[in-house]
Amino acid sequence: MEASDIMTRPVVTTTADSPLMDAVVKLTEGGFAGLPVVDEERRVIGMITEVDAIRAAEEVRHAPSVPPSRTVGDVMNRPVEVVSPHTDVNDIAQRMLTDRVRSLPVVDNGVLVGIVSRRDVLRPLVRPDDVVASHVQAVLDAYSAPDRRWTAEVKDRVAVVRGEFVDSPERDVVISLVHTVPGVMDVRVEG
């Protein structure tokens, strides 16, 4: 599997002359760990991360001589580690572990075409049934709180609920609740 198979696109970016506060808004509102800083041709010239933004805010707070109206270019990291669309995902994961980076821009012929985050690297490890099962279990746990009375597994979009029921109306309610979870096509009860 290569970077092009898992990368996120389009990429939210910023420019070196953008106000730092605009980049902070993009980081926080988008839930991004970092933003590539690009030039007019979409070549990556830097990277701004949450850590960079926090560091810049602390500098302003502790050093009155630091101007509060800084630009992205004032605080961005450079040079930037990048990968190509053909970089193996295992190599990307290793770079993330070794270099402690949370995201890597993907460039093709020098131009930004995507970005790979830690979440992108993890996503192929999770099967859709696992995701659905996690949501089903959360619904069941919320309904039976504070005790976990039932367990759920999902295979081929069929939820199997195991556990004891007080009566058949409770069983029917649980089946109805599980049917509300997106991705569940059918529900079986065992126990």
From TrEMBL:
Matching InterPro entries: CBS_dom, CBS_dom_sf, Diverse_CBS-Domain
SUPFAM superfamilies noted in UniProt: CBS-domain pair
Chain segments annotated as coiled-coil in the UniProt record: none
PROSITE patterns per UniProt: CBS
Pfam families per UniProt: CBS
CBS domain: residues covered: 7-65, 76-131
SMART domains the record matches: CBS
Keywords: CBS domain
Protein name (record): CBS-domain-containing membrane protein
